[in-house]
Specification:
Layout: E1 2-10, H1 15-26, E2 30-37, E3 43-51, H2 54-66, E4 70-75, E5 81-92, H3 98-107, E6 111-115, E7 119-126, H4 128-138, E8 143-148, E9 152-155, H5 159-167
Antiparallel strand pairs: 1-3, 1-4, 2-3, 5-7, 5-8, 5-9, 6-7
């Protein structure tokens, strides 16, 4: 099973190296990795995908939480979430294929970010299935180059509705994820 994790990290040199080294030492594979700044100065958010059985996913989370510069780890498998990824794709075009390629791109809501006489570059955002399907549709025309970002994920705000209706308790879905570790009030 694929698990999507978000880890909040101190934005300091070598933190990413320490996190990825933990994966290497334990023999875990990272399928996707994306890191970027958060709304909190000095804090980065790393989203990564790891294929692992449930017990191993729990172990990954516990081991990451032990690292000094890791503030919090969220396993999105425990909740509803929204995830997206982006692909830039350069495809060959000819006078005969130009219109068909543009129509397919329109179906996927792809944005044409570069138009050349012999190629187009498209930008597509969406879930993993949409990105993969777009690439498959473009393959017969001749893909010159692709670049996929790692997936990013956030807990759904609608998770706040679930806890009170299903579990009879309060949800933390509308609170900042770091409010319980004293970084943000």
């Amino acid at each position: 099973m694929k698990h999507i994790f978000s880890a909040f990290l101190r934005d300091e040199p070598r933190v990413l190296t320490r996190v990825t080294s933990l994966f290497a030492r334990r023999g875990y594979n990272i399928d996707s990795l994306s890191v970027g700044a958060t709304e909190e100065r000095g804090i980065s958010r790393m989203t990564f995908i790891a294929e692992a059985p449930e017990h191993m996913a729990d172990q990954i989370q516990r081991q990451l939480e032990k690292l000094e510069d890791v503030l919090k780890v969220i396993n999105h498998a425990d909740e509803k979430f929204v995830d997206r990824e982006l692909v830039l794709l350069k495809v060959r075009v000819s006078p005969e294929t130009r219109l068909e390629i543009r129509m397919i791109a329109e179906d996927f809501r792809a944005r044409n970010v570069d138009v050349g006489s012999k190629s187009y570059v498209f930008e597509v955002t969406g879930d993993e299935g949409k990105i993969t399907a777009f690439i498959q549709q473009m393959r017969p025309f001749g893909i010159i180059e692709t670049m996929r970002t790692g997936r990013v994920a956030l807990s759904r705000g609608s998770n706040a509705d679930i806890a009170s209706q299903v579990y009879g308790g309060e949800s933390t879905a509308l609170e900042h994820p770091l409010s319980d570790v004293g970084v943000r009030a």
